[in-house]
Design goal:
Elements lengths: L1 H19 L8 H21 L10 H21 L1
Length: 81
């Protein structure tokens, strides 16, 4: 059941981040899932570095952290291309 939650959570976070960064038309559902899951890892690392908690489950705080990490990932991708 945990992997299904991560997929749903990643899809939601990746989609929100892609809408914020205006890249939604360029990527599909699978890219949103990957972006959201990797973004959750990046966001968790950044928040732990700043002294706050990372992704702790399926809640609003974790969603915000995952979206934050996904936005960072999209920004880095845009900067490199």
């Amino acid at each position: 059941m945990g992997i299904i939650i991560w997929i749903i959570f990643g899809a939601l976070a990746g989609w929100i981040a892609s809408v914020i960064m205006k890249t939604d038309a360029q990527q599909g559902a699978l890219m949103n899932i990957v972006l959201g899951v990797v973004g959750a890892l990046i966001g968790g690392l950044v928040m732990n570095f700043l002294g706050y908690g990372g992704v702790s489950g399926f809640n609003l705080y974790s969603l915000i952290v995952a979206v934050f990490g996904s936005v960072i990932l999209i920004w880095i991708g845009k900067a490199l291309l």
